[in-house]
Amino acid sequence: MKCLNRLLALFVLAALPVVASAEVSLLNVSYDVSRDFYKDFNPKFVAAWKARTGESIEIKQSHAGSTKQVRAVADGLAGDVVTMNQAADIQFLADKGFVAADWKGKFKDGAAPFTSTIVFIVRKGNPKQIRDWPDLVKSGIQVILPHPKNTGNGRYSYLAAYGWALHQPGATDKSAQGFVSAVLRNAPLFAAGGRDATTTFMQRRIGDVLLTFESEAELIAREFGHGEFEVVYPSESVLAEFPVAVVDKVVDKKGTRKQAQAYLEYLWSQEGQETAARNYIRPRDPAVLKAHAAQFPAIKTFTVDEVFGGWSKAIATHFKDGGILDQLYSLK
Predict the structure, then answer these.
(1) pTM, entire model
(2) Which residues span the domain enclosing 30?
(3) How high is the pLDDT of residue 332?
């Protein structure tokens, strides 16, 4: 009997730590170049949530090309939230019933807490004198960008070039396509994602100019030093909006809706907006943006809605199999 009692006591003691160490865990499925921002942001939310509720929470991250990421969620990756760089990817999940049909109305600013734009990263001293879009089609220039089929970074780069070309005097769709085709001919490869494009340009030393989000420039500086490259702002570029959403199918199954909602809402907090600014992502909060104005030069931008009729139309026209991108790429 004593032996039985000891065994029961050991069983109870063994079980107690499991209960005591239980905590809520969220998975944030995000795009490739957002790693550093969320590395800074997540601990701040964890601390704020603990102070507010007394509950310990763990935030896990998954990063890759944005379109690959949402397809992974649709295929079973159990992300509680998705934080992407283009509305098309979240709409993809909404169309499949993973995200609310009215996801844009669930948070402020069309559910996009931050913005950015596409800029040029060039070698130290800008030896090829790359100043604006026309310089990308010159003979001997190599352009590095992520694949427009699979990444928001690549799609924004493609649309930025196309939109600039459409805004030139006397421009037509045919002339814009001719310009983008010339840019693609100068691309020796398509990188798998934004971070892979940076590695190709900075570490492998391939290319004369890297097309990427403005925020990536500071991340490059942290890793490689400010003296290794220069940032060139073109005369006009696309406004990149970074939307977020709760993955209903996952949070309802896990019981994490409250935490997931709070996590995304915290992106609009003063601390969330400041963290974005420190990572060179443009905050929505006007006061925070003004306080960091020195690091965000004024640039003329256009939206995907204004020039391309929205993301759904842009995807169907340019990025679907057999679309304009495929047609132009076949001319390389």
Answers:
(1) 0.83
(2) 19-112+243-291
(3) 61
